[in-house]
Design a protein that fits this description.
The chain is 38% helix and 26% strand. The protein is an alpha/beta fold.
Length: 358
């Protein structure tokens, strides 16, 4: 009887042992990988959006790491990751939220749906922010007043805001994956823009018009969106600005060169291991002065690039050629940086896809 009692006590102790959440503050992770891992493990995910040089981000992460070690206030079925929004594969999440304030804390359920958004704050507040999410509800930071409906007679609840953001996220993810939209997605996008037009959903609608061959509509929408772009838009959506300038065509900027391209995020078709593929990236000088591309720098030696060495007159289009050999199976992400006299910073083009074993 005594042995049985000891075994019961031991089993109770083992079953009640606290399992801390998985924590990685390295900022080397891609958001897509975080969501994939969380879904596979059927865990919630807390993603901390950071920016290089953000002192508040460092303090938040340090406090959270200490809290996880000392306390048992966070659920064990939780993945906590810190990601750098400067990485091309992570930038879309920051763009989705239309925020340029760090740290931002985004809470996902195991299905990859956003259920909580916290702007700034203290790491000690995280358990309280997670509590409604684990009960099936949402958390929306009182510090963030973004995403009010276009119709001033209507009001968004916090649940409405979360649903709106998740809709844009799903549409953007579908576009990144497929390069187009289904008829149902097209309808959802149009409804989303009518509900609350902002840069990212209007950009997607412009891309839709271009994919459908409605070049005049795409050009008109691109010009309208470029004219309406604010300072934060110019910071957050620099690569998309370059795409809009391509669709808009030669503009009023006669005294400068403007480097533009129709797509800065390129999804390649699945390819077999060790295959060679060549893609052509059209670039247009959307300005008035001659455009000179001084260098095109790939992030990997597996990419070989060629570009026009002569200057490109205003309004004209040339191609950048990228040839790649895929030597490792699985998903890959590579970047191409285009340097020119249009800007002191290079234009970033993100190339990603999947390599099969056969």
């Amino acid at each position: 009887m005594r042995k049985l009692s000891l075994w019961v006590c031991l089993c109770i102790l083992v079953s009640c042992k606290y399992t801390p959440p998985e924590v990685d503050m390295s900022e080397l992770t891609a958001i897509d990988d975080v969501l994939r891992d969380a879904k596979a493990a059927h865990k919630h995910a807390v993603v901390i959006l950071t920016e290089q040089g953000c002192d508040a981000c460092f303090v938040y992460k340090s406090m959270l790491a200490t809290s996880v070690k000392k306390e048992q206030s966070l659920p064990g079925d939780l993945i906590i990751r810190s990601i750098n929004t400067r990485l091309p594969q992570n930038l879309w999440l920051n763009q989705l939220l239309h925020e340029f304030s760090f740290p931002m804390i985004v809470i996902f359920n195991p299905d990859g749906q956003i259920r909580g958004i916290a702007k700034g704050g203290l790491a000690t507040e995280l358990p309280a922010q997670l509590a409604p999410v684990y009960k099936g509800g949402i958390y929306y930071s009182p510090n963030s007043k973004a995403f009010q409906p276009a119709d001033s007679t209507k009001k968004f609840t916090n649940e409405d805001r979360i649903d709106f953001i998740n809709t844009v996220a799903a549409l953007f993810t579908a576009y990144r994956k497929n390069g187009t939209f289904t008829s149902e997605e097209k309808q959802r996008l149009q409804q989303n823009v009518r509900l609350k037009p902002y840069f990212l959903n209007r950009y997607l609608l412009t891309q839709l018009k271009a994919k459908e061959g409605q070049q005049d509509s795409a050009a008109a929408m691109a010009k309208e969106l470029l004219a309406a772009s604010t300072g934060i838009d110019r910071m957050l959506y620099k690569t998309y600005i370059a795409e809009l300038e391509f669709f808009a065509g030669p503009g009023a900027a006669k005294d400068s060169a403007i480097l533009s391209t129709p797509a800065t995020d390129i999804m390649l078709d699945p390819a077999p291991l060790n295959a060679f593929r060549t893609i052509r990236i059209p670039v247009r000088n959307a300005g008035g002065k001659p455009l000179l591309i001084s260098d095109v720098h790939p992030s990997c030696s597996c990419l070989q690039v060629k570009w026009p060495k002569d200057s490109i007159p205003g309004g004209e289009i040339r191609d950048i050629s990228v040839t790649y050999q895929l030597k490792e199976p699985g998903d890959f992400h590579q970047n191409v940086y285009v340097f020119s006299n249009a800007s002191s910073r290079p234009l970033l083009i993100n190339i990603h896809g999947k390599v099969n074993n056969h």
